[in-house]
User: Fold this.
Amino acid sequence: MENPDTPAKSGYHHGNLKEALIDAADAIIREKGVEGFSLREAARRAGVSIGAPAHHFGSATGLLTEVALLGYDSLGAALNAVTTSDDAGADLQRLALAYVRFALAYPGRFRLMFRPDLVNRDDPRYAQASRQALSDFAKTCMRRDPTADPMAQIFIVWSSIHGIASLVLDGKAKYLFDGVTADDFAAEILPKLLATAWPFGGNDTA
Amino acid sequence: MENPDTPAKSGYHHGNLKEALIDAADAIIREKGVEGFSLREAARRAGVSIGAPAHHFGSATGLLTEVALLGYDSLGAALNAVTTSDDAGADLQRLALAYVRFALAYPGRFRLMFRPDLVNRDDPRYAQASRQALSDFAKTCMRRDPTADPMAQIFIVWSSIHGIASLVLDGKAKYLFDGVTADDFAAEILPKLLATAWPFGGNDTA
DNA sequence: ATCAAAATCTGAACAACGCTAAGATGGCAC
DNA sequence: GTGCCATCTTAGCGTTGTTCAGATTTTGAT
Assistant:
């Protein structure tokens, strides 16, 4: 349940409250979504009083920012685990699939990561984590079409993938593909969609 | 400020509280965003006690659903106002531009429209409004490539546009196009982007 | 080793929120 | 006129984030 290297709680002082609160917040968001989160419940789960988190994070935003950073790290790891090949277009398809599957596997984290009202964007680690998570993406985009304007290409491709993830997560896909669940979509419909209708899958570099 | 055809408030009874509350909610969301909304403030602005909205809308979700419907109507109107031509690809570009500009002009409405936790999706008017808003879109997609699978094509194109709008609205564009404001993006960068890097602008039907 | 200083956590308070239920008010059909 | 019913008020409950004085423990300097 907990890291074995925790100093454990020695009565009054918790030991590593900061990590415990981040874990608790992440768990709440996983179970009940971003809107189900409350600072008080995170404190409750960490076995600490309601005023304790303020010392470590200042406000709820501070704690949620940490969870968002964790989210970007895990997204980056998921994209980094995608196998690469000579075919940049095929790689881009796999990355897109991984992106959407991440969103569906961690809907709470994913939503939080794109909620400017809940995270502190002035934290320099935020921009860093965001950029890092998409680095594989950017590289594969450039590999697919080295002649294109880098920022333009990355933005357009990222938008397409992010739009797919957002719409599916918000339940809009079932309006078009009537009644299909998000999991079915990710497992069956989406791969076909990416292989046929998605314009970034083709190997343009010949 | 108010519709001239309001029965006005006759002391105890408001006259048309329902509309007044919807207007108030829409105004709050315009001014302070979705998160800045509260049922109590909407009641306050309508000049009515805090328990009054419950009678008309049941809960906050009920009221917000009305605002979301209003949002879909206005989005549909914005897309419907786009001039059409023989070139379906060019039309699609204009529709995309209108979609993103709507999101930037009415960020509160736009975000609310895609917040499943704040609107009642079981309301049959929701699916109806959603479909209606995108009808021009769907038609133009089919006109652009009549051979493609309708649902697949519409979903992919919509995703692309929705992703652009979402990322810009969430402030992600300024990470790629350093420091540019959302308005500058919509006015200058986006049109060029749609004309060059966007894969759905070309006239594939020859 | 001692003891002050800093870090950490408690507990209570405050204002605001959504929701509910009991009662007051007034329009409207009969 | 009278009674019904939609409408609105008011009070209350449980919840939330934030703040702050004080209790407790660790740390570091002497």
